[in-house]
Amino acid sequence: MAKKMDGPTPWPVVGSLLGMINFKEKTLIEWAETYGTVFQLKMGSYNAVALQGYDAIHEAFVAKAKAFSGRIDSEILQKFRNGKGLFFAPYGEFWSNWRSFAKDSFSAVHKTINEGIIAEAFELMKYFTANADVPVDALPHFENATMNVVLQTCFSLRLDENSPKQREIYNLTYDGAISSPKFSLLLFLPWMKWMPGFCGFLRETEDERKKCVKVILDLADQRLNEQKSSQDLVTCFYQSYQSPSEFDRESFALLVQDYLFAGTATTANQLLWILLLLLKNAKCLKKLQEELDQTFTDVGSLIRDSAEGKDQGLNYAKAVMEEGTRLRPIAPTSNMHTTTEDTSVAGFEIKKGTVIIPNLWSVHHDKIKWAPDPETFRPERHLDDYGNFQKSDHVMPFSVGWRSCVGQRIAESENLVYLVALVKSFDISLAEESNDIDITGDSTTLLQPNPFKVVFKERFPNQV
Ligand code: HEM
């Protein structure tokens, strides 16, 4: 007989939404202490189930992937992506075809991606060299680098930071509908579209989508008219779809829009967390710099080799990355899924159409797995007795299963390359004004560090 699922008593209308505004990952852990690792809650109008811990998440997303690979079906998402892109696309043939395109095209253009990452590593070094010894906020420069890698991957294009086009793309990706509280309200309380101001918001979201599609298709057309020999997503698209329909072209544009949305601020903030955790743990930073000095004499070969995966010897660097993403994953509750059929997890029955919230944070902070110090930044826990890096299946910042992050390899490669390039080239410290920064951060959208400044001091002047 199926077990009865417990959960927090829902408030009228909003259910448990109020507890999920900031640090939802921690609220979910508190609730799990009372209701168990699989519990039910109400997300506005939707029935939801939260999954805590490795076993529940693995059973759902890996062992029962088909049943757990849906996405919320909501009018606001329809206006935002028109059922296209990947991130919010419903489970089905369309999603599956474009997911295959995404994976195949990333493999086909890996050389272009690597070149983009290498170029951005040098640009970052150039910027921090020109601004050495003064406090800087690294985030916008990391975001510029990660956005350029997406543009390079898609269009063989690099834009200067703060150029009008760069700003336009950034604003269309982050400052539009998705940044409005109305977006989240309409997502979970769809009936609010009847309230004043909300119906217009649906229309604005749709107009914004059309504008984005136009900007991206203009870039694609511009790329087609250029005589470049590089392979990128535009060339892959026109190889697969020789005379694409408007439907295909919009699908392609919204895939690119998803890459910009899911691949820019995410990757940049993850790098920022890793840097902050190192700055707060001076011994680890020193140990990393020693490894880099022993393994590579010049920064150029370090950048090129690590971008091309010739990263043997970078065991401590990889352990630092793993520990940083374990302790502060930027998407601690991932993206919500829905069930595509009646199913079960851990013996609890779950109806088709239920929203699933995987708490990746609970795996990363598991008191038993990471005993005795789950809250401590200790990269050594990812090294074996011989000092070799050991990847852990209990570190899952990109989630697991069929809907796991399609950009994982790009993000991991970027952040390893940028991190080693910066730590090798500079002595990095927190600016005096940021010495008191704590590592709690803010979790209303992504889990981000609070703003802080750093000082880059050149170690080998005149090398960049
Ligand atoms: C550190 C950086 C990143 C992190 C931590 C991250 C994390 C995630 C997570 C947790 C998901 C949701 C998985 C799920 O629903 O189960 C996701 C999905 C996705 N990510 Fe990433 N991501 C990162 C970078 C990137 C990059 C660089 C790209 C592309 C260039 C990208 C593209 C996507 C796409 C398209 C999806 C939707 C996949 C689908 O629904 O089939 N991400 N990512």
From TrEMBL:
Keywords: Heme, Iron, Metal-binding, Monooxygenase, Oxidoreductase. InterPro entries: Cyt_P450, Cyt_P450_CS, Cyt_P450_E_grp-I, Cyt_P450_sf, Cytochrome_P450_fam2. The keyword Iron applies. Its cofactor is heme. It comes from the Eukaryota. Belongs to the cytochrome P450 family. This is Cytochrome P450. It comes from Clavelina lepadiformis (Light-bulb sea squirt).
